[in-house]
Amino acid sequence: MRGVPHDWDLLQFDAKYETARNPSEWLWGPGTARDAMAWLAREQLADDEVDILDRIFLLRHHDDLLYLPRSPDVAAGVSEDERSGTWYLIRADCPIDAFSHLRQVLAGGHVSTALDGRCGQCPIETVGSGSWQEAMELLAANGVPVSRREVPDVRVPSGMGSPRCIRILGDGSWDIPRGEGNGVT
User: Per-domain residue ranges for the chain?
Assistant: First the structure.
């Protein structure tokens, strides 16, 4: 995994979803520690820099479930059965801002009607929405480079059981559904 050293948010790392304030990504695996060391010796990864402001996140809303944000690269690599629903392109500084905004708007608890454009109540911008294919086209139209990445279903084990999605109830509220890969049973 690549991320900001000593970032406590990495304790909630999920390869499929954006869960940390700072960008992080799955680099290799699964495999043994020995295999990982051999891979690292071969790759000789250099330090890198990434923008942490005005990032683009994609959030999927399907069957009343709102899923955590994904990076454009990971969203481009989702399987066919994960493409249904409405995909929202949100520009925000961190994934929790994007998720919180869309949760409030979809649940009816946000006074703003910001499903398109800048929100007057929080620091996000909805770039657009549509099907998965339309979302991929919106990325291209907005000059967002995409390198399709298929990542394994890997996340840091957490006693907190972080949900990957919530159910939007539409009366200004939401709940955490059991199952759905949420770690909640």
Answer: 8-175
The DSSP element (H or E) to which 168 belongs, if any, is: strand 165-168
**Amino acid identity for residue 98 in this structure:** A
Structure-token pair, residue 147? 């390198």
Q: Please report, to the nearest 10 degrees, the dihedral formed by the alpha carbons of residues 131, 117, 64, 62 taken in order.
A: 20
The tens digit of pLDDT for each residue in 77-87 reads 999 999 999 99
Question: Which amino acid is residue 5, in one-letter code?
Answer: P
Q: In this structure, are residues 184 and 164 in contact, taking their beta carbons and an 8 Å threshold?
A: no
d(CA 19, CA 39): 25
Give the number of other Cβ atoms within 10 Å of residue 180's Cβ.
16
Location of structure tokens 């009607």? 113
Name the nearest CA neighbour of 89 among 140, 51, 48, 43: 140
Global confidence as pTM: 0.82
